[in-house]
Design brief:
single chain; alpha/beta; Rossmann fold; 7-stranded mixed beta sheet; 5-stranded parallel beta sheet
Length: about 325
C-alpha cells in the first residue's frame, strides 16, 4: 500500500515536471503597433515623443513592443495600400497621424483599434460620433488646428500692426471636404479687421509660384499657410518663396518654421504624440476605443524664426519674443 502510494506520488511529480516546462516555454505575445502617415516620412521629434510615451508605460520598442512604420514614398495616394499592409500583419493598434491616414484606416478596418492625431474636427468630418463617446474603433487626439485661426491672425497683427490684407495659402477641397481651412480664417479675419485673399492651389501638385504671384498682384502684406498632406512636403519651398517675396509668414505647425517660415502657433507636437501612447497602453490593456473620449490639447506653442525675420527685414516685438516657446536663431 505504501509502495503504491510512493509510486503514485512519484508519477504525479514527474507529470507535473513534464507539464511545467511546456507551460513556461509558451511564447509571450509581443504587441504590434502600426504607425501610419500619408505625407512622407514621419517627424523624428514626433516619433521620439511617442516612443517616450510608450516607455513611460514600460514598453521598449524591439523588446516588448513592435512598431511597423508605414509612409508613402512620394505618392500621396498610397495610404490605402499602406494600411492594407498593416491589416494583413494583424497589428493590435493603428496610430494614424493625419486626416488622410485616419480615413484610410477607418475604411480598411472596423475591428483594429485606431488612435488618431487629427487637425480637423473629428465629429464634423465623421470620424467619431462625439468627443465624449467616439463609438466605433477610432479615438485619439484632436489638435484644434482650425480653432486657432483667429489667434494666428491676432499674432500677425501684433507683429505687423498695419497689416490690412493677408494671403491664405490652402488646397482645393476634395469631394469629402478634406483640404478646407480658408473659411475659418475668413470668419476670424472680420473680427480683427483684416482682409483675406484666397491663394488656393490644387492637388496633387500645387502651383506655389503661381500662388505667390497672385499674392504679389493682390498686394498682400503677410501670409498664412493652411497645413495638410499636400502642402506639408513643400514647407521648405513655401518658406523660401515667402522670404523671396519678403512676406511675414504664419504657419499652423512648427516644422514649417524649422524649414524657414517666420512663425507658427499650434498645439504642442511633443505633448500630442506623447499622449497618443496613453491610448495605445489603455487599448492593449483591454479598453475599447468607443469608450475612450477624444482628447483636446491643453498646451500651445508659439515658435519664431529670428533668422527669417532678419532676412525679410522684420523686427519681432519684445512682447512676442517673451511669449515665444521656441526661438530659432
Amino acid at each position: 500500500m505504501v509502495r503504491r502510494t510512493i509510486i503514485g506520488v512519484v508519477q504525479f511529480i514527474m507529470l507535473f515536471a513534464l507539464c511545467f516546462p511546456t507551460q513556461a516555454q509558451q511564447p509571450t505575445k509581443v504587441p504590434r503597433i502600426g504607425y501610419l502617415t500619408s505625407f512622407g516620412a514621419p517627424s523624428q521629434r514626433q516619433i521620439d515623443a511617442f516612443r517616450q510615451g510608450l516607455k513611460d508605460f514600460g514598453y521598449i520598442e524591439g523588446k516588448n513592443i513592435l512598431i511597423e512604420y508605414r509612409h508613402p514614398e512620394g505618392n500621396l495616394g498610397q495610404a490605402p495600400d499602406l494600411v492594407a499592409e498593416l491589416v494583413q500583419l494583424k497589428v493590435d493598434v493603428i496610430v494614424a497621424t493625419d486626416p488622410t491616414a485616419i480615413r484610410a484606416a477607418k475604411q480598411a478596418t472596423k475591428t483594429i483599434p485606431i488612435v488618431m492625431l487629427t487637425n480637423q474636427d473629428p465629429v464634423a468630418t465623421g470620424l467619431v460620433d462625439s468627443l465624449a463617446r467616439p463609438g466605433g474603433n477610432v479615438t485619439g487626439i484632436t489638435r484644434l488646428t482650425r480653432e486657432l485661426s483667429g489667434k494666428r491672425l491676432e499674432l500677425l497683427k501684433e507683429l505687423v500692426p498695419r497689416v490690412l490684407r493677408v494671403g491664405v495659402l490652402w488646397v482645393r477641397p476634395t469631394p469629402l471636404g478634406l483640404g478646407t481651412g480658408f473659411q475659418n480664417y475668413e470668419a476670424a479675419g472680420d473680427a480683427v479687421k483684416i482682409q483675406l485673399q484666397s491663394l488656393q492651389v490644387s492637388r496633387p501638385n500645387p502651383d506655389l509660384e503661381g500662388a505667390f504671384q497672385a499674392a504679389a498682384k493682390g498686394r498682400v502684406s503677410a501670409l498664412i499657410t493652411v497645413t495638410n498632406a499636400v502642402l506639408s512636403p513643400h514647407s521648405k519651398k513655401i518658406a523660401d518663396l515667402a522670404i523671396k517675396n519678403r512676406l511675414p509668414s504664419m504657419c499652423e505647425v512648427m516644422h514649417y518654421v524649422e524649414a524657414g517660415c517666420l512663425m507658427s502657433y499650434s498645439t504642442s507636437d511633443t505633448e500630442a504624440y506623447h499622449r497618443a501612447a496613453t491610448y495605445v497602453d489603455k487599448i492593449l490593456k483591454g479598453a475599447k476605443p468607443a469608450d475612450l473620449p477624444v482628447e483636446q490639447p491643453t498646451k500651445f506653442e508659439l515658435v519664431i524664426n529670428l533668422k527669417t525675420a532678419k532676412q525679410i527685414g522684420v523686427t519681432i516685438p519684445q512682447s512676442l519674443l517673451y511669449r515665444a516657446d521656441k526661438v530659432i536663431k
